[in-house]
Design brief:
This protein has two domains: 3-156, ATPase, nucleotide binding domain (Nucleotidyltransferase, domain 5, 2-Layer Sandwich); 164-307, Nucleotidyltransferase, domain 5 (2-Layer Sandwich). The chain has nine helices and 17 strands. It has helices at 78-95, 113-116, 119-130, 166-169, 206-221, 227-236, 248-270, 287-297, 310-326, and strands spanning 3-10, 14-21, 24-31, 34-37, 48-53, 56-61, 104-111, 136-140, 143-156, 173-179, 184-190, 193-194, 200-202, 239-241, 244-246, 279-283, 302-303. The strands form three sheets. Strands 3-2-1-7-9-8-5-6-4 form a nine-stranded mixed sheet, sandwiched between helices. Strands 10, 11, 12, 13, 16 and 17 form a six-stranded mixed sheet that branches. Helix 8 links the parallel strand 16 and strand 17. The model has no long low-confidence stretch (mean pLDDT 92).
Length: 327
């Protein structure tokens, strides 16, 4: 079997995965939206995938509504396991790993901070993914894939580029704020060492913000505003109802985003996280939307250049070190 190192960050919004081929990073990303299906007859669009696993069929990706996002804080769900396995299959496909036989996967994967700090829950999560190291078969868009997961490294969210850019943080204190879809995770590192008391999680992700905006706009406009409508409003700046621009919607949305950002900072302070003598770094896909408003409250904030992939790149750096240590 051919060993292949894969790092995966499966979030409520998107699943990100990376591997290396001849020293070059290979990336992949798709939406973490999952629905059970039967006899699907429509043509698949780009970034949508049919999965056959353990006698059941699923659709994953862009074709599904925002309502198919998972609002459960746990990652130990069928939906997230399927997305991890789909990410593995996509990387196997991109790297041609199956040409050497059944790929032997060494995996590093994101773990919510509340689970990461609980050893029993973390081990349960690892066992659920690894399936006793047995061969895992599945079909993706009609193509058969098989792989084994020989090793899993569980790593916390809110890691950012700490371990993919070690030289920059070796002598530095840095507070990471990871703005995800469901949660915001916090962790302070002092000379690369995570401080346990700073590892906290808040229910203030972008999906929560989206739902708040949808509810407020529904009340204001007197018509149902769905999560899909809100997603478009966040992209375009305005809500359109029956083709007419709701001018006030821009002010409403911006006000709610500012409240959301203030809540992110206040929650950290309420949990004893200090912003003194530390570099504050924002990461996670949510920072793309919040960046302007974060600067209004904290002008000295630093943002990862590639916020969606910052965590998973660090995971891969740690995985490489662990793998080379085992050889």
């Amino acid at each position: 079997m051919k060993d292949i190192l894969i790092s995966i960050d499966t979030g409520k919004h998107s699943t990100k995965a990376i591997a290396k081929v001849n020293g070059v990073i290979v990336k992949d990303i798709f939406r973490t939206k999952v629905q059970s299906i039967s006899n699907l007859g429509v043509e698949l669009t780009n970034n949508s995938y049919t999965i056959e696993f353990e006698g059941k069929s699923y659709l994953i990706g862009d074709m599904l509504s925002e309502d198919k996002c998972d609002y459960n804080i746990s990652k130990s769900s069928t939906n997230h396991i399927l997305c991890i396995y789909l990410a593995i299959c996509k990387i196997i496909d991109k790297t041609g790993a199956m040409s050497f036989g059944v790929p032997n996967v060494y995996l590093s994967v994101n773990t919510p901070i509340n689970i990461y700090k609980n050893n029993a829950l973390k081990e349960e999560y690892i066992k659920l993914i690894q399936r006793k190291g047995e061969v895992i078969p599945m079909k993706v868009n009609g193509r058969s894939f098989v792989f084994k997961i020989s090793f899993i490294l569980s790593l916390p969210e809110a890691t950012a580029s700490i371990y993919s850019n070690i030289s920059n943080f070796r002598e530095k204190k840095a507070t990471i704020i990871d703005c995800g879809s469901l949660n915001t995770s916090y962790c302070t590192f002092n000379s690369l060492v995570p401080l346990l008391e700073s590892m906290v999680i808040a229910n203030s992700g972008i999906n929560v913000l989206r739902s708040t905006i949808a509810e407020r706009l529904t009340t204001f406009c007197g018509t149902l505003v769905s999560n899909d409508d809100t997603e478009e409003t966040l992209k375009n700046g305005y809500l359109y109802v029956d083709g007419a621009k709701v001018v006030e919607s821009k002010t409403i949305v911006e006000s709610l985003i500012r409240e959301h950002v203030l809540e992110i900072f206040n929650y950290a302070k309420s949990r004893g996280i200090s912003f003194n003598n530390t570099t504050v770094i924002f990461t996670g896909g949510g920072t793309i939307l919040l960046k302007k408003y974060i600067f209004e409250i904290y002008p000295n904030a630093i943002f990862e250049e590639d916020p969606q992939y910052a965590n998973v790149l660090s995971y891969f750096s740690v995985l490489e070190i662990k793998y080379n240590g085992k050889k």
